[in-house]
Design brief:
The chain is mainly alpha-helical. The chain has one domain. Helices cover 78% and strands 0% of the residues. It has 3 helices and no strands.
Amino acid sequence: MTTLIAQLKTAAQKRAAYNRTVSEIERMPLDVALDLGIFREDAHKIAMKAVYGA
């Protein structure tokens, strides 16, 4: 049972990090994003790779 709770806690933490990353990328000023080579439309893909490694 504790393993299940630990897995759920980890999944919730990763989901929160994913949502936070997407939000930060989408709110990033366009000039900063372009300087970093980031396209805000790719926020979900970038966050997925950063948080889940996929």
